[in-house]
Amino acid sequence: MALFNLRKAEPKDVPDILRLIKELAKYEEMEDQVILTEKDLLEDGFGDHPFYHCVVADVPTEHQKVEGYSVIGFAMYYFTYDPWIGKLLYLEDFYVMKEYRGFGIGSEILKTLSDTAVKNRCSSMHFIVAESNKASIDFYKRRGASDLSLQEGWRLFRIDKENLLKMSAEE
Amino acid sequence: MDFTIRAATLEDCKDISRMILELAEHEKVSDQVKITQKDLEQDGFSKNPFFHGIIAEVPEHLKSRDGHTKVGYSLYFYTYSSWKGRAVYMEDLYVMPEFRGKGIGKALMSKVSQLGLAAGCTQLNFTVLDWNKSSLDFYLKQGCWDVTSDLGYHCMRCEGDALENLAQGDL
């Protein structure tokens, strides 16, 4: 496909971003986990100190395969920090609608993100993938990504709100 | 033990840098630390910081064998979950060996939780090495759960040549 456009997300893209977040969550069988709203996305992504950045892929009307949708892919990312090597780019979400896969849109999004990482003097791009998602793991490994959980033994830990509240109340 | 937990300032970067190296030396990988005190000052204390820090300090009469009163730190930054919204990531948590077992680590983590909640975060994330049994036990006791184990999420990285190639569009 020759005609798709990659651009920085704008406030008007928020409904589409949420739609695609939910589609990706559904693909990961975690649809009920998405509690984020359009209001959150607007406030958190387009204020003075954004918590995230987004690029979107859109197609002109004449190339639409799914009626009504011009935004057909996105990537959500933010900058993190490793005290040993400095700035990193963290890829939070990356998704292209099923009908638009196989045309190089995903590769192009990844290229744009890597370019952003290099331009911002990030030494690395990090992200997480579910081990059951063989297709994505292969996609990333083909592009030189290494699995830190397997190779170095890193395990991602989390504390949810209930326990965060308990912990913050402790003297 | 008498200690205080407070926000890190520019002047603390000398001690934060010292403790980062101590932690790396303990893991026998101090040659991997590329970040200097000056980098920390620039990256953490400019208009758009890439991280925030908190310091654990003891009074002069309780200083370390080497004469330090700044005996622990935590580095954290804000991230974003496309499912739940604002989150806080604890990148480093360290207490000098001679000051462990006195509740300082827990107090540092409690402070990060408080700050995260105040900023509207609903989760605290961090990574732990699978061989670090004492840390794993400490965190599980605080109510954390192992996302890598439970959901099969692997931490992935794309760096160096792989990142450059990706930016160039080479496969």
Automatic annotation (TrEMBL), chain A:
Keywords: Acyltransferase, Cytoplasm, Transferase. It catalyses: spermine + acetyl-CoA = N(1)-acetylspermine + CoA + H(+); spermidine + acetyl-CoA = N(1)-acetylspermidine + CoA + H(+); an alkane-alpha,omega-diamine + acetyl-CoA = an N-acetylalkane-alpha,omega-diamine + CoA + H(+). Residues 4-170 form the N-acetyltransferase domain. PROSITE patterns: GNAT. InterPro entries: Acyl_CoA_acyltransferase, Diverse_Substrate_AcTransf, GNAT_dom. It is found in: Cytoplasm. PANTHER family: DIAMINE ACETYLTRANSFERASE 1, DIAMINE N-ACETYLTRANSFERASE. Homodimer. This is Diamine acetyltransferase 1. It comes from Labeo rohita (Indian major carp).
TrEMBL record, chain B:
Keywords: Acyltransferase, Transferase. Pfam families: Acetyltransf_1. SUPFAM superfamilies: Acyl-CoA N-acyltransferases (Nat). GO terms for biological process: polyamine metabolic process. The keyword Cell wall biogenesis/degradation does not apply. PROSITE patterns: GNAT (PS51186). Residues 3-171 form the N-acetyltransferase domain. PANTHER family: DIAMINE N-ACETYLTRANSFERASE, DIAMINE N-ACETYLTRANSFERASE 2-RELATED. This is Diamine acetyltransferase 2-like protein.
